[in-house]
Amino acid sequence: QPYLIAEGKKLFSYIFIGLIIIIFILSLCCLLNFA
Length: 35
Prior knowledge:
Blueprint: H1 2-34
Keywords: Membrane, Transmembrane, Transmembrane helix
Transmembrane segments: 12-34
């Protein structure tokens, strides 16, 4: 079971980082459009 928990945490961190990158890119695009 510890292996599954470790994998889940790794997957969650990847998803979290991905979301941050997507939000960053979207906000950058919005700033460029309004500039």
